[in-house]
Task: structure prediction
Amino acid sequence: MDIALLYWGGCYEVDSASGNTYEVDLLDETCSCPDHQDPDTPAPCKHVRRVQLELDAGRIPRPDGRLPETALPTHPSSEATDTHFVATLRTGIREREEQIATLEAEIHALRFVCDVADVVEEGETFDLKEVLGDEHGPASQL
Result:
């Protein structure tokens, strides 16, 4: 069975050997499987028990989302590893900033199109320089 934390608070997703996926609430000891709904099945069902076993063994995140202590690295960090980590973070930040700039440019262009559409829809005389105005910044230099 594969187990993943769905939500903080102890909700896990369990992919069973049968190919079905069930939602287990560890704190309430409930499961979405048919066995859990059957009063003749011993409680808790095997999926709830498996989540508890994996949690006790430290192989899955705790209900609060934190990783178990056994999942944390025990080796001291090296300067090379730290440098690589910082470089990776900086690259990720730069990529996010580029994505943000692209999205902001798209938003700016869409606002311009909406402004033009508003003027045309109202039946006013269309003057591109007037529509651009000061609010569109460098685009008004057309």
The CA atoms of residues 96 and 102 lie 10 Å apart. Helices lie at 34-37, 46-56, 79-121, 128-132. The chain has a mean pLDDT of 80. The longest strand covers residues 2-7.
